[in-house]
Amino acid sequence: MLAAMLARLLAAALFVLAATAAPRAYAQAEGERARAVVELFTSQGCTQCPRANRLLGMFSREDQVLALTFPVGIWDYLGWRDTFAQPEFSDRQRDYSRALRVRGRFTPQLVINGQSQISASDWDNARATYDQQIAQGWPAAAPEVSISRLRSDRVRITVSGRAPPEPADIWLVTYEPGPISVTVRAGANVNRTIAHYNLVLRIDRVDTWNGRSVWYERTRCNPQCAVLVQAPNGGPILAAAFTPDPRH
After folding, report:
1. Can you tell me the distance from the alpha carbon of 240 to that of 217, in angstroms, rounded to the nearest whole number?
2. HEC secondary structure over 171-233
3. Distance CA 181, CA 159 (A)
4. Over the stretch 125-175, which tens digit does the pLDDT of each residue have?
5. Are 95 and 108 spatial neighbours (Cβ–Cβ below 8 Å)?
6. Does 4 reside within a domain?
7. Domain total for the chain?
8. Is residue 194 part of a domain?
9. Range of the domain at 102
10. Residue 220 belongs to a domain with what CATH number?
11. What is residue 71's DSSP assignment?
């Protein structure tokens, strides 16, 4: 009788241990919370953009900085269609133009934490704006956000914290660290080879967040992904996290 009871207790303990260990085994790599998000709107048909791309590459190497490249086709009419531009990227830039009260769109444009923007043509001014935004940091009531890489190019996203003043958007961004180089064959940058860093491949709105604790799993995180919690319509970014580079 005693032996049978001990056997049942041991089996129950092993079951609980396996159940609690399973999620940890399932998660392959925990991501990193960003202390800043830098977005560059660039174009292969813009003469100042190759240099701005290099600036974005410099930001991407700083600790806990999520630097992202969004190519737009604003200069396609000059004779070269940007090979990476997508309509969704232009829509995002338009939202920022309205929210930040910028007259029209331009390249190269840096947007930092969704709160400030500046031309990336002037590295000194861009760095000063970046440093100021870094010092300001996230809002005091910034949500807790995490992203973990799972098996088979899947990721798990979690968001929790105090409810924002208005429902926020949760974005999943898939990007290629690069550098990826393209030789331009026509237009203003004819015969120039342009490098792209942290090139965004797709951006998807996951859900609306209103302060509840939520988690999601998504596919197609290859090679890297990031999650942004952002006020709607090009508003401030409230928090962000990104997956570790699988090559490191």
Report:
1. 16
2. EEEEEECCCEEEECCCHHHCCCEEEECCEEEEEEEEEEECCCCEEEEECCCCCEEEEEEECCC
3. 35
4. 999 999 998 898 888 889 999 999 998 899 999 999 999 989 999 999 999
5. no
6. no
7. 1
8. yes
9. 30-242
10. 3.40.30.10
11. E
